[in-house]
Specification:
- By secondary structure, the protein is mostly helical.
- It folds into 2 domains: 199 residues, Growth Hormone, Chain: A (Up-down Bundle), CATH 1.20.1250.20; 198 residues, Growth Hormone, Chain: A.
- The protein contains 15 helices and 10 strands.
- The strands form 5 sheets. A two-stranded parallel sheet has the order 1-4.
- Helix 3 packs antiparallel against helix 14 and helix 9 packs antiparallel against helix 15.
């Protein structure tokens, strides 16, 4: 879940200015707004925070519902669909976020409340899921483009999480802020972990499923996720309409001097350190797009699983991955792991984890066994009900079927769930912190915006690049691209490791001095 993030802060005298609120997924928007018609409270509104957490779970669930079934669904709509088109479909989600988030963030600041924008986002999610469901009866030449449209609309609706996370940040007292943000972040992680597991309940429906009143529309293992997502959307809609009370406790406690837009002195940014952070963020999200895009296709082609078994297998993989990641968040927050080790070293560990995943799941030439193979004649016979479902690598589609070795399913599921799960958790909790520290004690909206834009672009461009390489040259070259990117990232991190330190005022100086520039002071982060 990525996109553009905004923030605002209000005062009792009727004025309001933007503040920076960051996490590892969203871009800050800064804007001045007029008086906001919201309630204030003396204590953190835990009831409202709990409702927001429930809505975050409902929104995040649908993100994981489609990971394993979208590729088989596209193939059922149009047998000629390519891997490159799959990448295009996946990238449209991020494209919708990038285009819509600034407008939604601006509108929330303009009207002074998050309730209407949240409602609009939820309705967009409902619309996107309905369109996804209806694609099954669209003409085969257009059905896959209906799926593209649904992904774009769902991307717009997912900006909902920006608003919910922002509310958790601004509604709480300063001493409760880390706890409220952790609740919403944990809700997102819980939703993502539930999503793939929910897909397991739909697998018994099979490809044909249950037809609805002789309309031609069926609830099957491809379309049931959309129906389930609509159900969760309706729960979120009920919550925001009838249960959620937009109360802010943090409005009285923030001094106005904290909102200064122009620092009293100019801070000299270390652009080399900024570049390293950007490179790490790009590789981080590029890796995620690789895992979510190629997963089911890789399992079907290289491991020789049927569509139904591949969906079930990859649902289990992502469920375990999300559980590991959620467990890491819990340990990190309640075990106070931020006190142990430097932030920059934790980022390095996250990158090393990615590297280990690609090495252990690489299709090495010395691996035993051969991939199962079939050709178009087997596929035609199956469609004419004259044979069983062909499994493995289609030699008429992929030129690399003879040279690639199968990967052990147990090795893959372990590496994906444990290694990638931990690495995602590490980078999600440390990289944005490192980048913010490198920028120093100043307004960070513009730079943080560029940083998150880099990561969103990785999620948009990643599926297109990876699927193109995979289709033309096979999984080995797709894996080699990731290994080269990670090697480059680790090398520049090692070379400039000493520069990945906080920007801070000298210890003897608590306020900036005019006409003096600050350079990084070496601290442990």
């Amino acid at each position: 879940m990525e996109g553009v993030r905004f923030g605002f802060e209000m005062h009792l005298d009727g004025t309001s200015k933007s503040i920076s609120i960051f996490d590892d997924q969203f871009i800050e928007m800064t804007a001045e707004v007029k008086i906001l018609k919201t309630k204030t409270a003396e204590n953190t509104p835990w009831r409202s925070i709990s409702v927001v957490t429930v809505m975050a779970v409902c929104t995040a669930i649908q993100g994981g519902l489609y990971y394993s079934s979208i590729w088989p669904y596209l193939r059922s709509l149009n047998s000629e669909v390519t891997d490159i088109f799959l990448g295009f479909v996946m990238s449209m989600y991020s494209f919708g976020q990038i285009l819509s988030a600034p407008l939604i963030g601006w509108s929330a600041n303009k009207i002074g409340t998050i309730r209407p924008p949240v409602t609009v986002c939820i309705l967009c999610q409902v619309t996107g899921n309905v369109v996804y469901f209806l694609a099954q009866e669209a003409p085969s030449a257009y059905a896959i483009y209906v799926v593209v449209l649904s992904r774009f609309i769902l991307g717009i609706g997912s900006v909902n999480l920006v608003l919910l996370d922002t509310y958790a940040s601004t509604a709480s007292l300063p001493r409760h802020k880390s706890r409220t943000i952790s609740l919403v972040t944990g809700g997102v992680a819980l939703g993502i972990s539930i999503g793939p597991g929910t897909q397991l309940f739909f697998t018994p429906l099979g490809k044909h499923g249950i037809e609805l009143f002789n309309t031609g529309f069926s609830i099957n293992m491809y379309t049931a996720p959309a129906v389930a997502a609509i159900f969760f959307n309706l729960i979120a809609l009920i919550c925001v309409s009838f249960v959620f009370e937009e109360v802010y406790a943090g409005l009285n406690s923030q001094p106005r001097e904290k909102l200064t837009d122009t620092p009293a002195k100019k801070l000299k940014i270390d652009w080399i350190a900024i570049f390293v952070c950007h490179a790490t963020g790009f590789v981080h999200y590029f890796t995620f797009s690789h895992v979510e895009t190629l997963g089911t296709n890789f399992v079907m082609t290289v491991m020789g699983y049927s569509e139904e078994n591949a969906i079930q297998y990859y649902s289990i993989c992502f469920t375990l991955l999300s559980i590991v990641e959620l467990g890491f968040y819990g340990v990190y927050v309640f075990g106070k792991l931020e006190k142990y080790g430097s932030t920059r070293m934790k980022c390095v560990f996250g990158l090393i984890g990615f590297f280990i995943f690609y090495v252990t799941t690489f299709s090495w030439s010395f691996l035993p066994g051969e991939m199962k193979k079939f050709d178009n004649s087997d596929l035609i016979a199956f469609r004419n009900f004259n044979g069983s479902e062909p499994i493995g690598c289609n030699t008429d589609t992929y030129s690399w079927c003879e040279s690639v070795k199968p990967v052990n399913p147990w090795v893959y599921i372990t590496a994906l769930s444990v290694v990638i799960g931990l690495s995602f958790g590490i980078l999600n909790t440390t990289l944005s912190t490192l980048f913010s520290d490198v920028l120093g004690p100043k307004k960070q909206g513009t730079q943080m915006g560029f940083f998150h834009m880099t990561r969103n672009n990785a999620r948009m461009l990643g599926p297109l690049a990876i699927t193109g390489i995979y289709e033309s040259f096979g999984p080995r070259f797709a894996w080699m691209l990731q290994l080269c990117m990670l090697t480059f990232n680790l090398v520049i991190f090692a070379v400039f490791y000493h520069r990945m330190v906080p920007m801070a005022f000298p210890k003897h100086q608590t306020h900036p001095v005019d006409d003096q520039e600050l350079t990084p002071t070496t601290q442990k982060i």
